[in-house]
Specification:
This protein is mainly alpha-helical and 341 residues long. It folds into two domains: 43-129; 154-311, hpI Integrase, Chain A (Orthogonal Bundle), CATH 1.10.443.10. 44% of the residues lie in helices and 5% in strands. The strands form two sheets. Strands 1-2-3 form a three-stranded antiparallel β-sheet, with no helix packed on it. A two-stranded antiparallel sheet has the order 4-5. α2 (46-57) runs antiparallel to α3 and α7 (167-179) runs parallel beside α11. The N and C termini lie far apart (100 Å).
């Protein structure tokens, strides 16, 4: 096929149906004529924009999340032109529940909805840059709750772990609060990913939240558990034999055991992930620099660690002394001390 200007065009109709291929040929030829003669831009399908965007985004820190978002939006807008998409319709098509492979579906948070919207907004803005659409729809965001930082002091966490009735739950909780590792990272930890001599472990890319592998230094508390469990482990550090004698991977923590332990100690509104918050809070309170904490915890950006900064006000105290002038002045030193009334 040739365009009205004489340029040869070769592409696949992606179908074995001869009639459908002929219709696609005629449709494409009509679009090229309208573009060449009338100056109209041809309509582009959502799939075209999705493929181009994924190529451009490859290598970005949040590429895995964008792939997941695009895969979902394809189920909603396959075969649709990007020109026909509106913000109202995009909002109506937002997912309503999570689809975690190891957990029951639960309502999607406003923060997660905003991530899905951000991917679509970026896609449509690129379509505007490519002149596929005249304007990008105006996007609005859902209101997100304040950043949650929930932690407890060491003596409370000690009582919490002691109150757990399952040994493997005590062990995994202790390593969680001693290393800051996430739940999925802990439950997928294999003995070959731990170096007992160097007190170091590795989170492989497949199990990391941001898909980047990282090393994890273990302190004495974590090493005590690992040195006891690894010699007996068959495939995973935290594993549980079933009735048939086979060792199976633990897909998630025992929520009932954790809840009963919290009730026994008197802790309210505390989740397993809050052990990671507790670990980070302890580090900041003891003077660990935020940049170091970012690397220890495997966070992507420094902004994600800033939520713990308020727990260490002492790091500003020395700088406050820089602007002293009154207490060091000769006149102030000559003044007699004030008597209490």
């Amino acid at each position: 096929m040739r365009s009205p200007s004489g340029e040869r065009i070769r592409c696949s109709a992606r179908t074995s149906d001869k009639q459908a291929a002929r219709e696609y040929h005629d449709h494409l030829k009509a679009q090229l004529w309208r573009k060449d003669v009338l100056g109209e831009e041809p309509d582009h399908l959502f799939e075209e924009a999705a493929l181009l965007c994924l190529d451009l985004w490859e290598g970005q820190d949040d590429y895995t999340g964008k792939c997941r978002h695009i895969a979902y939006w394809k189920t909603q807008f396959a075969g649709r032109t990007v020109r026909s998409l509106t913000f109202d319709e995009i909002c109506q098509k937002l997912p309503t529940h999570t689809t975690h492979k190891h957990r029951k579906p639960k309502p999607l948070s406003n923060g997660s909805k905003n991530r899905y919207l951000a991917t679509m907004r970026r896609l449509l803005k690129l379509c505007k840059e490519w002149k596929w659409i005249p304007e990008c729809p105006v996007f609005k965001e859902f209101k997100e709750p304040d950043v949650r930082v929930r932690w407890e002091p060491p003596e409370v966490i000690q009582r919490l772990i002691e109150a757990m009735t399952l040994e493997w739950m005590r062990d995994v909780s202790l390593v969680a609060v001693a290393s800051g590792m996430r739940e999925d990272e802990l439950l997928s930890l294999e003995p070959c990913h731990v170096n007992l001599q160097q007190c170091t472990g590795w989170v492989v890319a497949e199990e990391a939240k941001n898909s980047y592998a990282r090393s994890v230094p273990f302190n004495r508390d974590a090493m005590e558990v690992l040195q006891r469990r690894i010699p007996k482990a068959k495939k995973y550090v935290f594993e549980r034999p079933s009735r048939d004698g086979k060792v199976r991977k633990i897909s998630q923590i025992d929520a009932r055991c954790f809840k009963r332990a919290c009730e026994a100690v008197g802790i309210k509104d505390f989740r397993f992930h809050d052990l990671r918050h507790t670990w980070a809070s302890w580090h900041v309170q003891r003077g660990t620099h935020l940049m170091v904490l970012k690397e220890l915890g495997g966070w992507e950006t420094l902004e994600m660690v800033q939520k713990y900064a308020h727990l260490a006000p002492s790091h500003m105290a020395t700088h406050a002394e820089t602007v002293n002038f009154w207490s060091n002045s000769p006149e102030q030193k000559k003044m007699p001390p004030q008597r209490a009334a």
